[in-house]
Amino acid sequence: VLCDIGFIGLGVMGKNLVLNLADNGYNIAAFDLNHEKVTDTIEQDRLENKTDSPRVYGCFSYTELLSQLKAPHLIVLSVPAGEPVDQVCESLIGAGIQPDDIIIDTGNSLWVDTVEREKRYKSQFLLFSSAVSGGEVGARFGPALMPSGTPYAWTRIKPIWEAISAKVDPATGKPIERTEPGEVIEYGDPCAAYIGPAGAGHYVKMVHNGIEYADMQIICEAYQVLREGLGMSCDEIADTFEKWNQGPLDSYLMEISVEVLRHKLDDETPLVDVILDKAGQKGTGLWTAVSSLEVGCPAPTISQAVYARSISSFKSARVTASELLEGPDSKEYTEEEKQTFITRLHDAIYCAKICAYAQGFQLMKLAAKEHNWELDFSSIAKIWRAGCIIRAVFLQSITEAFNRDENLENLLLDEFFAKQLNLHQSNWRQAIADITLMGIPAGALTSALSYYDSMRSGVLPANLLQGQRDFFGAHTFERTDKATGKKYHVEWSSKGRPMVSM
Ligand code: 6PG
Q1: DSSP secondary structure letters along 105-142
Q2: Which residues does the record give as substrate binding sites (predicted)?
């Protein structure tokens, strides 16, 4: 038999996507440079296959892979971003890939690389991209997919992508669970929607990851405050997070944090206590922060989350400084004070989370404008409701905000989110004040509050800043009491000299 789909790269994500595709009735020709991974995937499929016929066929060269596929060929790549993508593309050209064949890059490629690749390979094959979110389990039982590239390629990919993606119950906005091999969900809203032309999908996934960094950091800051500030045990913190997970903070990241905190070693030591506090990163959060600076979109909470990972990597300097630099004296809290603080912290997390998403969505909006992408933000929020790492109840509210106003400039201006922030900002402020007095770092929670206060300031000190710029560099300024667009300059050094309009 000729297979429906070729699959290259059988790492954790690749193998699970192959099994997911197979569950949904597709035959796969699978290849990896590491032949053991090919045999391992076939073996896994043999164990999980509930049908009578094989679903995954192992290939041991690119030529063999192409020869096993129905034409025009559809090939999915799950290889690390960067060089490996080009190596596979070149190898497939060498093996005889055709101009109407499609290669789908599912990795976390840098979006500009995708734009460049699409152009470079245009005459040899169609490069389509579709970032995948959801980790190992998502890949196996339903990820969120962010496809982008030529609409023609999407018409061929769409039924497959909608089949394998996570699904949301349209009535509740909640994910439909799929956890068993062989199980197929044929109803619900698929978490796979066409994003736009080449690069748009990878950009959106990049911002998803930036938000993911912020979401994770916010939870981690809450953990540190509860642990060090209130002296709570990991189990007590897990109990608190579990409670929070019943309300507006309900999210996958909160859920897995509970599990991480509850995990114990044989001697009952919480595992988290022995995990080295140096965070890794593969680049997508950093790219989001860089892009926010380039686009001119404030995303301080996302950037802070990247900085928090960087500062964590300076372990030895931090240990030295911890002996050298002073903080506040520690304080004992009464049970009542603790409960009040926990309530305020909950609200701080909720508000900071709203700000992080506001930053991410505004960044996508500004980038879309710059690159002429017509992004549908309601649809993006919708496909993030299930399958992906940032899936959360909260995304239903974002979907609704963009349904109310598809041109919404910033989530903070939406009536629902404005109401939430107005209700909780006082507790948020109090929590930040308390955390600051405890001497515990909380860059994400704090930067979000500063973002919120900047956004709600009709007047910022940029007036003085413009004066400074004009002073040393004659950079000119506009005046609020004169016509817009008219520029003024002052000869600052000689008081009383007339103002020059330029
Ligand atoms: C996802 C994740 C996934 C990956 C991150 C990890 O959406 O499924 O974002 O893409 O786990 O890239 O990123 P860091 O290693 O940078 O934390």
Answers
A1: E-S---HHHHHHHHHHTTTT-EEEEEEEESHHHHHHH-
A2: 108, 133-135, 208-209, 213, 282, 309, 469, 475
